[in-house]
Specification:
Blueprint lengths: L1 H23 L1 E22 L8 E2 L24 E14 L4 E5 L1 E11 L5 E8 L2 E26 L7 E23 L8 H5 L8 E13 L6 E13 L10 E28 L1
Antiparallel strand pairs: 1-3, 1-11, 2-6, 3-4, 3-5, 4-7, 5-7, 6-7, 7-8, 8-9, 9-10, 10-11
């Protein structure tokens, strides 16, 4: 009986010790709006070789003007191995858990591709008739492409506390549709502008549809009850069907991206409430 009494006393003491320790642990009540609207700006660098149309002639010794020019100002056309893509978008966001958020919306995307001579001009074959081939002198050719994109992103916060600076990981997919594409050509002299249509008709638009997947990380700066900013870094992978005669040929490419955004809480009556143990 004495042993049983000692065991009961020990258990009672342990119970009170545990209760005292539990009382010493602080808890934080989190109460934040579930919905917010985001305004974003992003810039991406994609590693992909720009397509050089087969009508380009560069630094070929067999073509000279009637007045022989030993300096030969027809240069070489460098083939860039990358291009930049910029976007602006509006994305609503929904926090559906302590650490998870989902965001989607719409983006306006723009890129510009340019091929230039390293000298005064390069040559473009306009047409060929038997033994006669006609060329024009071009300083540069540009292609500007405009897309509307629909992204879907998942956000995972590494800390459940609503800290002033909060780290997170993100992953997303985007479906992009080409809405406009514009080609322009700058000739060596104005007399050649009559061949503008002949040149531009041989430069195709990129494929109308392309998709992106991306993963990255970011930092949320500010409390969730108020407007706050985000800074994100990610690795995008882009894919579209190959378009042989476009400057932006397509296929698969990867790169590096940077995005910044401002997020504003909306529909504040819908709250996300939970408790975090502050250990």
């Amino acid at each position: 009986m004495k042993i049983l009494k000692n065991i009961i006393i020990l258990l009672v003491n342990l119970f009170f010790i545990i209760e005292i320790q539990a009382d010493e642990v602080d808890t934080i009540k989190i109460n934040i709006p579930r919905f917010r609207i985001g305004i974003e700006f992003a810039s991406n660098l994609f590693i992909q070789e720009i397509n050089k149309p087969d009508r380009i002639r560069e630094n070929r010794s067999y073509y000279y003007e009637s007045n022989y020019d030993r300096n030969f100002y027809c240069g070489f056309v460098a083939q860039p191995d990358h291009y930049f893509c910029s976007s602006f978008g509006i994305k609503p966001e929904f926090a559906f858990g302590k650490s998870f958020a989902l965001t989607t919306g719409i983006r306006y995307i723009f890129n510009k591709i340019k091929l230039s001579s390293d000298k005064d001009y390069f040559l473009w074959k306009v047409n060929e008739d038997g033994n006669k081939t006609n060329y024009v002198k071009i300083q540069n050719i540009q292609q500007q492409n405009y897309y509307i994109g629909i992204p879907l992103e998942f956000i995972l916060y590494t800390n459940r506390k609503d800290l002033p600076v909060r780290h997170y990981f993100l992953g997303g997919v985007a479906f992009n549709i080409l809405v406009a594409s514009k080609n322009t050509v700058n000739f060596q002299n104005k007399n050649m502008q009559k061949y503008t249509t002949d040149v531009l008709n041989n430069i195709a638009k990129p494929n109308i549809i392309h998709g992106n997947i991306y993963i990255g990380c970011g930092f949320k700066c500010g409390k969730s009850k108020y407007p706050f900013g985000n800074v994100e870094f990610f690795i995008p992978i882009s894919y579209s069907q190959i378009q042989e005669n476009s400057l932006l040929k397509g296929g698969c490419s990867a790169g590096f991206g940077f995005q910044t955004s401002l997020k504003i809480p909306i529909l504040k009556k819908y709250k996300l409430n939970y408790i975090v143990i502050d250990d």
